[in-house]
Design brief:
alpha+beta, binds glutamic acid
Length: 306
């Protein structure tokens, strides 16, 4: 049966607008707090390339931790299973920037989507490329029919200025031999990757390969190996929303990845990718209305991964 995604998104938008817009915009990176708190956008792209959007779905957003999906995919394609020597694939059950497990687990982060794990991934890319940002932008651009990709330098510089926590994670892991590059350089690269800006429409399109067995909808070429597609999706399901990954699977039932800019991207294999943006975050650091919107979407749709 053909789903009327246009009406579905409009219904979700309508319901979400009636809900109290609770939560708080992230301000530990001060520049992120400059965003209007009441924005809402949602875009969906089907595996056959049809696009739908409501609200501010074309507004550029700070993708923040959603960038960790792109860097993980790049690192996995470059180094294969060797990357798991430097990090695990287990949910952390702790907040995204927690230090606690690193002590007992000897500098090996629980997974690539908490900050510690993402810093290790970026460290691998710095060692390989020297300047991985150009390659990262090309990687993303390749998923978007070669469209140019922008970094918000104010956001990047704001994060660099307020990066004590991420530096602490990096120095701590370095003391265990799990970071190889200069920490200032690592934080600079990591903060720039997080400050990439994409709209919901672009996020949905750039994640479509994960819903499309690794194939680009534009070129019909494989842009992710079969294995990377499987593993990245599995990690998004189990670790994509930090210590709320269980709740996300329970409520929404799709692999997804959130960022503190208020964006969340999720996919339903062979069906669609969907991106939502609402800057107010719940106490776990995930977009409060974004979670709600995705839950309404899969409930109305009547199916999810499960
Ligand atoms: N740049 C952010 C940080 O390192 C990303 C966190 C997130 O989006 O969850 O704190």
């Amino acid at each position: 049966m053909k789903v009327d995604y246009r009406s579905l998104l409009e219904e979700v938008y309508e319901e979400v607008r009636q809900d109290a817009n609770e939560g708080k915009v992230a301000d530990y990176i001060p520049e992120l707090a400059c965003v209007g708190p009441n924005h809402f956008g949602m875009a969906l792209m089907t595996a056959s390339g049809e696009e739908f959007g409501v609200g501010d779905y074309e507004h550029k957003i700070s993708i923040q931790s959603i960038s960790k999906v792109f860097t993980l995919a790049m690192a996995y394609e470059l180094f294969g299973n060797d990357i798991w020597k430097r990090m695990d694939v287990e949910p952390s059950g702790n907040s995204f920037n927690s230090l606690v497990q690193l002590e007992t687990e000897k500098g090996i982060p629980r997974n690539p989507f908490i900050n510690a794990g993402a810093l290790v991934v970026t460290d691998m890319l710095v060692s390989h490329f020297g300047d991985p940002i150009t390659f990262l932008l090309d990687f993303i651009s390749n998923t978007l029919d070669n469209r140019p990709i922008n970094i918000n330098l104010d956001v990047a510089n704001s994060e660099i200025k307020h990066s004590d926590r991420n530096k602490a994670l990096a120095y701590f892991m370095k003391s265990f031999g799990n970071i190889n590059n200069d920490i200032e350089r690592l934080i600079e690269v990591y903060s720039h990757q997080c400050a990439i800006e994409l709209s919901c429409a672009e996020l949905a399109a750039s994640f479509l390969a994960l819903a499309n067995q690794g194939y680009s909808i534009h070129s019909q070429k494989r842009i992710l190996s079969k294995s990377a597609t499987k593993r990245v999706n599995a990690l998004m399901q189990t670790c994509g929303c930090y210590d709320e990954a269980g709740e996300f699977a329970f409520e929404i039932g799709l692999p997804g990845k959130s960022g503190v800019g208020g964006g969340i991207v999720a996919i339903l294999p062979n069906q669609f990718s969907v991106a939502v943006w609402s800057p107010r975050l719940n106490p776990k650091g995930n977009s409060a209305r974004g979670m709600k919107a995705l839950e309404i979407l899969t409930t109305k749709l009547g199916h999810s991964l499960y």
